Amino acid sequence: MSVFSKFSPQAKVSLVHCEDNQVLLTPKDASAPDKATASEKEQIQLIDLVREATPSTCKLNPFLFNGHLQTGYTTIKETNEIPIYYKRKIFEQEIPSLAGQFAVDFVVPAYPKTTDPEATDEARKYTLPSGLPARTTFFSKDELAALPSNDSKPMLVALHGLTGGSHEVYLRAALAPLVLDENSGWEACVVNGRGCAQMKISTPLLFNARATWDVRQVVKWLRKTFPNRPLFGIGFSLGANILTNYLGEEGENCLLNAAVVCANPWNLDVTNVALRNTWIGAEVYSSHMAISLVKLFNQHVDELTHHPRLNVNDMENVKYIHEFDRAVQCALWGYPTEGAYHRDASSTDSLLAIRIPFLAINAEDDPISVKQAIPYDEFKQTPYGVLLTTSWGGHLGWFELGGCRWFTKPAANFLDRMAKTIDLSVTPKPQKDKEGLYGEQLANGSIHKPSHASVFYPVNRKLSMTIDN
């Protein structure tokens, strides 16, 4: 081993996928007059596109030589400026039992700082007293009126992690290769969780790990507002779990063309146990996340106290994330225990019902989205997904020397290749007959008579929540 190699360690990169059945993608330059009938020779397998999108090496910062250091470095103040600017639009959830307002931030060209009272929500009608995140203002009425378009630019819908928002550095780092390059042609928006990104809540409901209803409404609105744009999704950590659940629930009727999920915790029951079983898991990660959750709760406590099942006094002893889930998530959503919530909200099974090409990226030394929870076996059963793992990277870290994040490369490359080299008018199909694929009978909640004596439904859920507003 050379001296250079010794001080430039590499993470092992692995791809896990279904070996005997892969989704076939049709290139835009396929020669068949009717591309839907393009021969298998002209088509490419999803795994091959992922291989092309994945850098051949993963060289990370040698000073951040394990998952804890990589994860800890994410809390350091931003050193690489990522100047992404947003305009905010307020949505009202259309489902009465899930009523409430939430914010969607659209990436826009850079603009000068403004003191316009409507743009900054000076009256704080929608925004917490401390004001909007940096580089974020509200759309004006004229800007909203001009927003619809018939252009065919690819558009990315992003979901942030726990208590985060569009301002998060990891999220902007992933968007940057697509939206900051003037020649890329991408548009993007971020669906902020209820109560996140300095947004007030209007009903006593926060986000949870399977809160797919807001992103579903936004995607439908995007399809109507931008009828010619191909739509894509990307989720991070908790947002990756939500996005995976959404994709599984939508099944064949999903309006997105492809998606990437980064640092998904997958099996929340397993990650919860892993955090509680070590000192650093409990006293560093779980307690730190609980502090953020309690802070968010306190920002919205006046509205949350209106929930009939929530006892604010239960928050006094919350120190760890599972205690927050017990005191708040169980009360808000009607789960009997935090374990029931974790099992119901996990996305491991949901991936088997996804019917669009998707890429999952996880670091095996992630101390939060732990290796034990990564669904290796499930990825070997679905032709629609590929799991990319690295032996090193931490939780949404993957820091290289200089501060760039490695995971943004395969994520952006995959999305860009799907948008620009694949004919999205041709439905991706597995090499083998889809009969027998898990979840086929419950795609998008549709109910069909099972064709077998026993059928596994990946997106069956136990929670049906109704609340009096």
From TrEMBL:
Top-rank taxon: Eukaryota
Record Pfam families: Abhydrolase_1
GO annotation, biological process: medium-chain fatty acid biosynthetic process; medium-chain fatty acid catabolic process
Domain AB hydrolase-1: 154-376
Catalytic activity annotation: an aliphatic alcohol + acetyl-CoA = an acetyl ester + CoA
Family label: Belongs to the AB hydrolase superfamily. AB hydrolase 4 family.
Name of this chain's protein: alcohol O-acetyltransferase
